[in-house]
């Protein structure tokens, strides 16, 4: 059984079809990557799967629940790390976690041990009583992961988890995501426009362009599929979409991402 399943999932914004008849199935414990340039439709997919945006047509289930008909049940099963910064910088990490524990209905007696475990998991115990605005981008991202796993979700969604991070901080985030899968068998659904991220982290990758899936498979299968043993995922992307990853997107999205990057960095 698939823990995430979509059936002709579609979202239009006026004339634009941002996500066009998406058919996907993600298995339990899988790390699945949606890879594509800015404007491909990745965030729109994540927003539909996390119940934040209704589909125009088609359907999706997460942990067996329909994202439209059973949104509350879906939310109880998922964690979500959005593309833009989601933590309150004026609070400490501990305070951010306490608020989330209350929002997500973590029982009072379990709040302290869960917060302590989450802080330890992402390596932020020492900094837990510092205001978050003093954190580096990598620390902030790790806090967002801690927040998203506090209620022990079965599926974790991360939208561009490493945008704006330096190479070392990116590696640390990757390590934590790998651990989540190993320790909790959590299913991880992430979006990225970094080829190396998809290659190093994901069991399977869907290459998305202009709202459609251009290719889907393990990084190895995708590389093999273009008949060049030395291929990279960049080559795969260019092969299936007809252009380089860098050429995607538009000014508005690039500038939005840059702003995020600057804020996180
Ligand atoms: N709320 C919205 N209103 C109108 N257009 C939108 C909205 N959200 C996204 N879009 C458009 O849908 C397309 C896909 O956007 P998005 O899902 O954010 O892509 P990605 O996350 O891959 O960069 C883009 O062309 C974007 O401009
Ligand atoms: Mg996006």
Question: Which key phrases capture this entry?
Answer:
265 residues, single chain, alpha/beta, 10 helices
Describe the structure.
The chain has 265 residues and is an alpha/beta fold. It has 10 helices and 10 strands. A 6-stranded mixed beta sheet has the order 6-7-8-3-9-10, sandwiched between helices. The chain has a 4-stranded antiparallel beta sheet with strand order 2-1-4-5, covered by helices on one side. The longest helix is centred in the middle third of the chain and has 18 residues, at 167-184. Bound molecules: adenosine-5'-diphosphate and magnesium ion (MG). The site of adenosine-5'-diphosphate has 12 residues, from strand 2 and helix 1. Adenosine-5'-diphosphate is lined by residues 13, 16, 18, 36, 38-44, 253.
Helix content: 40-55%
Q: What oligomeric state is this?
A: single chain
User: What is the count of distinct domains?
Assistant: 1
User: How large is the radius of gyration?
Assistant: 18 Å
SSE succession? EEEHEEHEHHHEHEHEEHHH
**Ligands, ions, cofactors:** adenosine-5'-diphosphate, magnesium ion
